[in-house]
Amino acid sequence: FGEGITIVDDKIVMLMWLNNEGLVLNKTSFEQIGSFNYQNSTEGWGICNAGDFLIKSDGSNKLTFLNPSTFQEAHSIMVYDNQGPVDAINELEFIDGKVYANIYGKDVIAIINPKTGIVEGLINLLGLHSEPSQSDKELNGIAFNTATKNLYVTGKQWNKLYEIKVIAR
Questions:
Q1: 133 C-beta neighbours (distance < 10 Å), count
Q2: How far is CA 162 from CA 1, 38, 139, 151, 155, in A?
Q3: What pLDDT score does 128 carry?
Q4: Is residue 21 a contact partner of residue 36, using CB atoms and an 8 Å limit?
Q5: How many CB atoms lie within 10 A of CB 11?
Q6: Which residues does the chain have with pLDDT short of 50?
Q7: What is the pLDDT of residues 86-117, one digit of tens each?
Q8: Are 21 and 29 in contact (CB under 8 A)?
Q9: Close Cβ partners of 129 (under 8 Å, ≥ 6 residues apart)
Q10: pLDDT digits over 117-133, tens only?
Q11: Which of 52, 48, 75 is nearest to 141 (CA)?
Q12: 80-114 exposure pattern, b = at least 16 Cβ within 10 A, e = fewer
């Protein structure tokens, strides 16, 4: 089934979770116009458009950078915080030069420096939803509103979409 999606020009790029394949769709008609195979990862969890690159997650602590025209892997980085590798990187959003990534099974969004892989901050969403992250009900969606600078977050089987303003502490 489909996982992460992002927009590149007039195309929608969508990852398939276990098929080792990404799909390219026409943004207007949703007709499939292409596909691509993953090279060094076998799963597709999240993808975002960072301009010069697409950034893909595979459920590990690795972020893979793809050429947005050919979808070929250019390079990858490992993600770490002060505790060590940050595994289960899932849904991605690129905001103001940083990768925002929800961590599968946790009510947290990591703010990752895409040059170094260092987690520079965490957004704690514990208590936002009445059913904290658990199997099949976890946080799993991030979107950014460029006009308001707010995030939209939701999860699997959540019946609500939350708009939140992130405030630095």
A1: 20
A2: 24, 32, 11, 8, 10
A3: 83
A4: yes
A5: 17
A6: none
A7: 999 999 999 999 999 999 988 899 999 999 99
A8: no
A9: 107, 139, 155, 158, 160, 162
A10: 999 999 999 888 766 55
A11: 48
A12: ebeeeebebbbbbbbbeebbbbbbbebbbbbbbeb
Residue with tokens 């799993």: 140
Q: If you search the block for the tokens 């007709």, which residue do you land on?
A: 31
- As given in the structure block, the two tokens for residue 108 are 């947290």
Which residue is listed with tokens 């020009």?
A: 9
**Adjacent-strand bridge partners of 26:** 11
Name the one residue in this structure whose structure tokens are 């892997």: 73
Tokens of 153: 């977050």
In the chain, what is the straight-line distance between the N-terminal and C-terminal CA atoms, in Å? 38
Q: How far apart are CA 133 and CA 146, in angstroms?
A: 27
Distant-in-sequence, close-in-space partners of 149: CB < 8 Å, separation ≥ 6: 165
